[in-house]
Structure formats: structure tokens, C-alpha cells
Design brief:
43% helix, Glucose Oxidase, domain 1, 7-stranded mixed sheet, single chain, Transcription Elongation Factor S-II, Chain A, 27 helices, transmembrane, Aminopeptidase, 22 strands, alpha/beta, 8-stranded mixed sheet, 3 domains, PA_dom_sf
Length: 793
């Protein structure tokens, strides 16, 4: 028995040793030291296991418990250390050694030969406690100073941004703009459009603007012929040039440039002799009073009140063969002495006539469209009109101007001869980019124009280019210090504007898909200085509130302030494509004369051949240029930088309601629908825009979706069919004097001529569909946000 008893401990020891080695070999991590397999450790196996068992029995190891077999062993202490297999983990799915081996201090805890020391354990705990305390205090300090030095979102979108904008804009100086303007006007004599384009590109690049490039298109231009057009009186045989001077070699030498560029681009050409009929402004009422004859006639037409293309379409339908176009001096400011001045007009609705609706890129099909109307159209001066109707040049009595008009019973037969040539020429756009930091795929387009060598030589383009260049200079000074806007700003200098906004149309058609999706706003610098008495702002309904704020802020910095004048009306220039084909919100600041604003609209369709000194006469110190630059710049910066686009959805609904006010027939159903649109817009603005503008409630993905909705709001108001010269975007009125939808106004005029309400029914349908589309759009936006329950804070 003694021998057997002596062998039991050895057998038990061997079992323990084998069990330990088996588990350890199976579960050892690859990175563990090899000394765990050394035979020197076998002698301490029982001591190691005993230490472990004691720790497992401590209260801290509550995941282990003894089963019924253990309890039995406790009653027999002499064999308790032999039955190792009776101890099993109750809550851990892993074996005892395996779980302990996963602890990071497994080796250090169980491979020491020296016994554990309580003072050492106390020191370790003290070190851990001190380290934790130091880290906690350090974390508090870091958080405090980080919060102190990094302003909140509310500060960033408020005071900080306004301060940043002012820092950028204060570097814009009138003297710099004046210098740039004078440098540009020296280039207009160039016969090649590329010289001016190269100058602009070089200048923008030197300022630091990124990726400045030429974008060229080969387009069909209608240019002046080798000799000036003429008008002859059949009764006397007298021949006159468009400026009223007799057809003589001497007159041709003294004003050859003026005579050549007094023409209507894309008019029919040839010779026509017929009776002149005075149609005044050529609207429906004027044509109803006109006594038409069976033969082809020549219309004596005043520019203004309605788009020229629309009036020409009416005359063409009425059977006229030619048009003598002029501006009545009574419609011009008293200070303007333009009786002998000639002008140019374009009959091109927009883009390259040979590629209507698609870009003029290599390989495009070219249509043969040398003229865009069957009418022979010739602009003439007021002095020539006075000679044709045998009226004295001075018609002012007692400070009252008498309009030019042909006596009712007088008959005038004239012969008109028009000579123009059509050629393919290259039109160049200059485009530069400033990439955005957080939303580089969202664009704010800033558009100016430059001189096209084949067109008239007015100087408004130099003002436009000098202003955009001044803003680029100020912006890039800040960019060089590490700042960037959130959204991308695209700077464009368009070519071919005088011929029907050809450069901007072709670029827009070329990149249509990208622009439809990504463009947020268009800022126009087409013709910023047209007078010096009144700041006149044009803005989309969604941007009017922002423009009013900027006007008021600018006014507060000056001693003399005038009432803010902001409206959504049709404007001349390269914004046309972006408003009418892409539905992009647009802003334009310009200085006008009071009398020009009070007179007939659409006089700006005439391009007068002004000298280089005219702009400097209106703004000799270039303070107006500086104001336009800063106003436009602040709007650009705010749209490019605000987390939520500064657009107002409710203003669109209010504009729609205002356009239906008054004594208008057939609008009852439209008013009911407009009321529902306003309700949806109010709900959208309060439920979605208000929280998004609060940094505490702002959720990035919701802000992005909200901005996508805001930038596309106006697209619902693009209609397919409109009269020639009318905007497809019906949110824009014909002028500041009319508040009706332009297509409803035209349909009412059309009914006077045809005595039929078919046209007005079509127009009502277009307006109804637009309002309904906008209402559905807002409602769909609300539904999308309501469905995103996981986004709510």
C-alpha cells in the first residue's frame, strides 16, 4: 500500500503536467516566448496551479464556480488538490488556462519565482491612480482650450464669416479697377479676339487662379458688309446713311466704323422698295390701328416696351417685308443726345445659329442659317426718322417732348438696302476655377464679358472685365493665406455676347448635364455701369431677400441712402442661358439713371457705339465700380460659404401669388393652387430650413439634401413654348412695371389680334403645370425628410 500510495502523487503530477502542456500547446499565441515549453518549469507546475486555484476561489473571479464534485472534495481536504478535473468554468465558454492565457500579464504574473509582495502591489495601484488622475486633468484642459480657440458653428456661420468677407472685400480699391479698365480699353482695336482673351487669361493666372483655360467654339457670325447700308426716299431720290448723313464719300470717311456697325445681325439682306407704315412700338394695340395694304410694306418701328424679337414676329406674321428700327428721343434721358447716334441689334435668340440647341464642337452638323428672319431690318438714328417724316429735329415745347410719328395721311415710299456677310469665326471663352473645400462639386458661376473683335466697339465690356478681375485679386490674396470657399467658384469671361450671347450659350450646351446638376447660382456682371443715379438690382425670387440685405448693409455705410430697388425682370446678357435653360438662381447689380428706369423697357437691346470716355464720364473716380464689385463679391462669398444656401423658398410662392393678382380672367383655379404652393413652402421653410440653419440641430446629410432641393426650386417654372424674346423662366417679368406672368400678358395681347382665347388657354395650362410641379416638388422634399427617422437627433 505504501508503494501504491507513493505512486499516486507522481501519477497525479504527471496528469497535471500533461494537461497543462496540452492546453498550453494548443492555445499559445504565436508571439509568446518559447521558454514556456522549457522543462525547467515542470518542477513548479504544482505551485503554479495552486496559486491559480487560490485566485479562482477569490470573490473577484465570479465567473468561475465549483460544481458538486468540488463540494465533495472540500469535505476531503487530503485529496482536494488531486482532483483538478473537477474545477470547470461556469460562465466562460473557454477553459481555465485558455482564458487566463489571454490576459496581457499572464506570463509576468505566473512565471515569477519570488513570492508576491503586498507593498509592490500597493505601489503599482498608486502609480495607476496617479497616471489616471493626470490624464483626466490633461483631458479637461485640452477640451477647454479646444473649445475656447475653436468657435462654435453658430459663430463660424455668423460673425466670423462676416468678418472674413469684409477682410477680403476691403482690399478692393477703385483706383485698381480704374487702372485695369484703362489697360483693357487699349486692346479693343485688336482685329483678333484671341489677344484680349490671352491678356485676361494671363492676368487671372498671375493672380493665382487655378486651371484658367480657353474654351473655343467655331460659330456662324453675321458681320457688316463691305459698305454701309442705306435708305433712299423715292420721291426725291435722296440717299441717307443710317446716321442721317447723306450718302457721300466724305461722310463715309468720317464715320466709316459707325456706319458699318449700324446693322441688325442675322437680318435678311437685299433691297426692298415699299411704303413706310408707322407701327409705333409694334404691340397688339398699335397693329390693330394700322391700316394694312395688300402689298408688302416697311414698318417704322420704335424700340422698347416689348422684346424686339417678339415684335418682329408679329410684323412678319402681318406681312411686312422690312423694318426701320429707331429709338424715340422722348424715351431717353434728357441728358442723352443720341439723335445722330447709330446702334447695333442682334436678332439671334442665343447661341450659334448653325447649331441650335446643341454645342458647336468639332463634328457637329451645321445648318445653313445665314438669316434668322425674313424681314430686312435696319437700325437708324432719330435724325434720319425726322427727315423721312419731314419733321423738325427739335420737338420740345414747354419742356414737353413730342414723340416722332408719321402723319396719318402722308405717304412715304423708301428703298432700303442691307449688305452683310456671314462667316464662321472662333469665339473664345476664358474660364478659371477656384476649387471648393467641402463641396467642390457645387459651382457658383461669375460671368463677365470681353470684347469680340468683329462686333461694335463699346466699352461696357471693359467695366465688366475690370470688376471681375478686381474680385479675383481680392479673393486670391486670402486663398494664398490658406483659406478656401466651401463651394467651387467658376469665373467666366464670355466671348460673342453682342451676337446673341454665343459664348455662354455654347459653353452651357457643351456642359449642360454637369451644370444642371451642380450649378448653385449665377452672378452676372454683364453691364454694371449704365448710369450713375440709382443702384438697380435684379435677382431671382429665391435670392431677393439676400440682395435686399446686402443693399441695406451697403447703404448703412454711406451717408446718402436710397430705397432698395430689387426685382425679377428680364435682363440682357449672358445670364440668359442659365436662367432660361437651366433654371439657375441669378443676381445682377448695376447702376442706372432714374429716367432710364422710368422709360420704356428693352431699350438696352440697342448697342450704341460709345467712345472710351463715356464710362469715365459716368463714374470718374470709379467708386460705382468699387461698390458693384463689393456687393457682387459679398453675395458670391455668402452663397459659396454658407452651410445652408441663403435661398428663400417662401419668396417664390409669394412671387407666384403676386403674379396672379389684379383683374385677370381665368385665374381662379391658379390662385387656389398658388395658395397650396405657399402652404407647402411655409411648411418646408419652418420644418426643414429653420432647423438646418441652427448649428445645434444641423445634420450634414440633411443639409446636403436640403441644399439640393433649394438649388433646383426654379426649375419647376421653366416652360417649353414661349413667344420669341420672352423668358422661359416665368418667374421673371417683362419689366418692373408689370407684375403679371409674361406669357399670360402676351396671351391677352394675342387675343386682341385674333379674337380667340385658344392662346390664353394654352398659357394658363403652362402656368398651372408649373405651379403644380413646384407644389409637388416641395411636398416630395418634405416627404423625403419625414421618412428619414434615423436622422432625427
Amino acid at each position: 500500500m505504501g508503494e501504491n500510495e507513493a505512486s499516486l502523487p507522481n501519477t497525479s503530477l504527471q496528469g497535471k503536467k500533461m494537461a497543462y502542456q496540452k492546453v498550453n500547446a494548443d492555445q499559445r499565441a504565436p508571439g509568446h516566448s518559447q521558454y514556456l515549453d522549457n522543462d525547467d518549469l515542470q518542477a513548479t507546475a504544482l505551485d503554479l496551479e495552486w496559486d491559480m486555484e487560490k485566485e479562482l476561489e477569490e470573490p473577484g473571479f465570479d465567473q468561475f464556480q465549483l460544481d458538486s464534485a468540488e463540494n465533495q472534495n472540500l469535505e476531503n481536504p487530503e485529496t482536494a488538490d488531486l482532483n483538478l478535473d473537477s474545477i470547470q468554468p461556469a460562465t466562460s465558454p473557454k477553459g481555465r488556462f485558455q482564458r487566463l492565457q489571454e490576459e496581457s500579464d499572464y506570463v509576468t504574473r505566473y512565471t515569477r519565482s519570488a513570492p508576491k509582495s503586498n507593498p509592490c502591489n500597493f505601489c503599482r495601484l498608486l502609480k495607476i491612480l496617479c497616471t489616471a488622475t493626470v490624464l483626466f486633468i490633461l483631458g479637461i484642459l485640452i477640451g477647454y482650450y479646444a473649445h475656447k480657440n475653436c468657435p462654435s458653428n453658430a459663430t463660424t456661420s455668423g460673425t466670423l464669416d462676416l468678418h472674413l468677407y469684409q477682410e477680403i472685400l476691403k482690399t478692393i480699391q477703385a483706383e485698381d479697377i480704374k487702372k485695369s479698365f484703362r489697360n483693357l480699353v487699349q486692346l479693343y482695336k485688336s482685329e483678333d479676339d484671341k489677344e484680349i482673351s490671352k491678356k485676361i487669361k494671363s492676368h487671372w493666372t498671375s493672380l493665382g487662379l487655378e486651371d484658367v483655360q480657353f474654351v473655343n467654339y467655331s460659330v456662324l457670325l453675321n458681320l457688316p458688309g463691305p459698305s454701309a447700308s442705306s435708305v433712299s426716299l423715292s420721291s426725291s431720290g435722296q440717299c441717307f446713311h443710317p446716321n442721317g448723313q447723306p450718302c457721300s464719300e466724305e461722310a463715309r470717311k468720317h464715320s466709316s466704323q459707325d456706319l458699318l456697325y449700324s446693322y441688325a445681325a442675322y437680318s435678311a439682306k437685299g433691297t426692298l422698295e415699299a411704303e413706310v407704315i408707322d407701327v409705333s412700338y409694334g404691340n397688339a394695340d398699335d397693329l390693330k390701328r394700322t391700316k394694312m395694304k395688300n402689298t408688302t410694306n416697311i414698318a417704322l418701328l420704335k424700340l422698347g416696351k416689348l422684346p424686339l424679337l417678339y415684335k418682329l414676329s408679329l410684323l412678319e406674321k402681318a406681312g411686312f417685308g422690312g423694318v426701320l428700327l429707331y429709338i424715340d428721343p422722348c424715351d431717353l434721358p434728357k441728358t442723352a443726345n443720341l439723335s445722330y447716334d447709330t446702334f447695333m441689334v442682334s436678332l439671334n435668340p442665343g447661341g450659334d445659329p448653325s447649331t441650335p440647341g446643341y454645342p458647336s464642337v468639332d463634328g457637329s452638323f451645321r445648318q445653313n442659317r445665314s438669316n434668322l428672319t425674313s424681314l430686312l431690318v435696319q437700325p437708324i438714328s432719330a435724325s434720319l426718322v425726322a427727315k423721312l417724316i419731314s419733321s423738325p429735329n427739335s420737338r420740345t415745347k414747354n419742356s414737353v417732348c413730342s414723340p416722332l410719328e408719321l402723319p396719318n395721311n402722308d405717304q412715304r415710299i423708301v428703298s432700303m438696302q442691307i449688305q452683310t456677310v456671314t462667316k464662321f469665326k472662333t469665339v473664345t471663352n476664358v474660364v478659371g476655377y477656384l476649387k471648393g473645400l467641402t463641396s467642390p462639386d457645387r459651382y457658383i458661376i461669375v460671368g463677365s464679358r470681353h470684347h469680340t473683335a468683329y462686333s461694335y466697339y463699346g466699352q461696357e465690356w471693359a467695366s465688366s472685365t475690370a470688376i471681375i478681375t478686381a474680385f479675383i485679386r481680392a479673393l486670391m490674396l486670402r486663398v494664398k493665406r490658406g483659406w478656401r470657399p466651401d463651394r467651387t467658384i467658376v469665373f467666366c469671361s464670355w466671348g460673342g455676347t453682342a451676337f446673341g450671347n454665343i459664348g455662354s450659350y455654347e459653353w452651357g450646351e457643351d456642359f449642360r448635364k454637369v451644370l444642371q446638376r451642380n450649378v448653385v447660382a449665377y452672378i452676372s456682371l454683364h453691364s454694371p455701369i449704365r448710369g450713375n443715379s440709382s443702384l438697380y438690382s435684379v435677382a431671382s425670387p429665391s435670392l431677393q431677400q439676400l440682395v435686399v440685405e446686402k443693399n441695406n448693409f451697403n447703404c448703412s455705410r454711406r451717408a446718402k441712402c436710397q430705397e432698395t430697388n430689387v426685382s425679377s425682370v428680364q435682363i440682357e446678357g449672358d445670364a440668359d442661358y442659365f436662367i432660361n435653360h437651366l433654371g439657375i438662381p441669378t443676381v445682377q447689380f448695376a447702376y442706372e439713371d432714374f429716367t432710364a428706369l422710368e422709360g420704356p423697357s428693352f431699350l438696352s437691346e440697342a448697342l450704341f457705339l460709345k467712345g472710351a470716355t463715356k464710362i469715365e464720364e459716368m463714374d470718374p473716380f470709379f467708386h460705382l465700380h468699387e461698390t458693384i464689385t463689393k456687393l457682387s463679391g459679398e453675395v458670391i462669398l455668402q452663397i459659396a460659404n454658407e452651410p445652408v444656401l441663403p435661398f428663400n423658398a417662401l419668396d417664390i410662392a409669394i412671387e407666384v401669388q403676386n403674379s396672379l393678382k389684379g383683374d385677370q380672367p381665368y385665374t381662379h383655379q391658379l390662385l387656389a393652387l398658388a395658395s397650396r404652393l405657399r402652404e407647402s413652402a411655409e411648411l418646408f421653410q419652418s420644418d426643414e430650413m429653420r432647423p438646418a440653419n441652427d448649428p445645434k440641430e444641423r445634420i450634414p446629410i440633411r443639409v446636403r439634401m436640403l441644399n439640393d432641393i433649394l438649388q433646383d426650386m426654379e426649375k419647376s417654372f421653366l416652360v417649353e413654348q414661349v413667344p420669341p424674346g420672352f423668358y422661359r423662366n416665368i418667374l421673371y417679368h417683362l419689366d418692373g412695371k408689370t407684375s403679371q406672368f409674361s406669357i399670360l400678358l402676351e396671351a391677352s395681347e394675342h387675343c386682341k389680334l385674333l379674337a380667340s382665347n385658344e392662346t390664353i388657354q394654352e398659357a394658363l395650362s403652362e402656368v398651372l403645370n408649373s405651379i403644380n410641379s413646384a407644389q409637388v416638388y416641395f411636398k416630395a422634399g418634405l416627404d423625403v425628410f419625414d421618412s428619414g427617422l434615423g436622422w432625427k437627433n
